[in-house]
Amino acid sequence: MKITVLGDGGWGTALAILLKNKGFDISLWGAFKEDIEAIQKHGENKKFLPGFKIPKTIQLTSEISIACEDADIIVLAIPSRFLRDVITKNKKILKESQAGFVSVVKGIEEKSLKRMSEVAIEVLGDVELAVLSGPSIAPEVAAGIPTAVVVASADEIFSMKTSDIFRAERFRVYTSKDLAGIELGGALKNVIAIASGIADGLGFGANTKAALLTRGLAEMTRLGCAMGASRETFQGLSGLGDMITTCVSSEGRNHRFGQEIGKGNKPELLLKKSVMEIEGVWTSRAAIQLGKKYNIELPITQQVYSVLFENKSPLIAVNELMAREPKAE
Predict the structure, then answer these.
(1) pLDDT given for residue 329 in this prediction
(2) Is residue 202 over pLDDT 90?
(3) Residue (of 238, 282, 237) closest to 257 by Cα position
(4) In whole angstroms, how far apart are CA 261 and each of 278, 280, 305?
(5) Has 189 been annotated as catalytic?
(6) Which phi and psi (to 5°) does residue 318 adopt?
(7) Count of Cβ atoms closer than 10 Å to residue 313 Cβ
(8) Which of 69, 131, 153, 254 could form a disulfide with 193 if both were Cys (CB 3.0 to 4.6 A apart)?
(9) What is the b/e burial string over 146-183, where b = at least 16 CB atoms within 10 angstroms of the residue's CB?
(10) Predicted pLDDT of residue 326
C-alpha cells in the first residue's frame, strides 16, 4: 500500500515516519521546494521536527503529482488556512488518484465556518474520507511514546480500515461515528490552550489552569452540541484528552504562544516570528462567529479573541472572566 502525506509540518512528518516504520510505501509532500531540499540534505526536518531521522526510503517531493502517483491513501496534513487552496489547485490530481483521504487537520475555515472534512468533500466530491484526531504531540509520536487517538468517518468500513492502517505498537487508534465532534474538539481546544498559556505567562497556578480547562471544556461542549456533535465525544480523546495535552505540554505551540503573550509579547509580532501555524488564533475568530450563529455563550473564547485581535490586556481579560455574574456550574 502506498500512502501519501500532504504537508511536511511536524505532524505530517511524524505520521510519515510512523507509517514508514509499519512498512508502507510513503511519500511526503511539502509546498516549498527549499524545505524539501533541506530535509533531503540533513536527513531530518530541522524546521518542523528537529532531532528525528527520516528514513531514506520515504519519497520526499514538492511535486504533488509525483507524491500522489499510485497512492491508495492520501493524508491531508495541511494547515487549515491553506487546505482549500491546495486541494482546489490540485483537484484533478487528487480525484484521479482514486485514493481514500484521511484528514489530520485541526481547524475551522474562517470564511465558510466549515470543518476540514466539509471543506474536503465540498472540493473533492464523493470520496472516502476519515478524520484522525486526539492528544498527539508530534515529537512524542515520532519518538514512539505511547499515544492514543481516534478516527471517525461517515463510512464505518473506511473508519475501520483507517484505524488498521495507523494502529501501531505504541499508537493506539479508537473509532467513532461522531465526525463533527472529533473535528470540533481538535479545533476548539487550541483556543483554550492559548488561554492556558496566557495564564501561565501571567504567573498563575494550578487552580487557574484547572478552572480554565474545566470551563473551557464546558464551552467547547456547548458549541459542539449546538452544531450536532455528541456530548460524550468531548469527554474523550479528541476533546478532553487533546485539550489536556495541548495545555500542559511544553511542545504545545498554542500553549507556548499564549505563554509569550502572558509575558507581555504582542500577538502580531509572535505570529510573524513563528515558523509553525498557531491554529488557535484563527480558530478563535471562527469560533466567535459560530457562537453568534448558534447563540452560544463563549466567555473564554471571547476573551482570547479580544486579547489577540482587540489589543486587550491579558490581565484585564482574566479579571473580566472572574468578575462575570455568578451562575450555576
Answers:
(1) 87
(2) yes
(3) 282
(4) 13, 13, 13
(5) yes
(6) -65, -45
(7) 12
(8) 254
(9) ebebbbbbeeeebbebbbebbeeeebbbeebebbbbbb
(10) 87
- Asked if the model's pLDDT at residue 241 lies above 90, the reply is yes
pTM attached to this predicted model = 0.96
Q: Residue 315 and residue 307: Cα distance in Å, rounded?
A: 10
- With cell 488556512, the residue in question is 81
Hey, which residues does 73 pair with through a beta bridge?
3, 100
Phi and psi at residue 114, in whole multiples of 5°? -90, 150
Grid cell digits, residue 14: 511524524
Distance (Å, rounded) from C-alpha 33 to C-alpha 20? 22
Amino acid at 327: K
Cβ 178 vs Cβ 117: under 8 Å: no
In whole angstroms, what is the distance from residue 15 CA to residue 319 CA?
Answer: 41
Q: Helix 299-309 and helix 253-262: axis angle, to 10°?
A: 70
* Percentage of residues of the chain with pLDDT beyond 70: 100
Residue 84 pLDDT > 90, yes or no? yes
Out of 47, 106, 161, 189, the active site residue is: 189
Q: Tell me the pLDDT of the chain averaged across its residues.
A: 97
The pLDDT value given to residue 328: 87
Closest CA to 134 of 238, 224, 229: 238
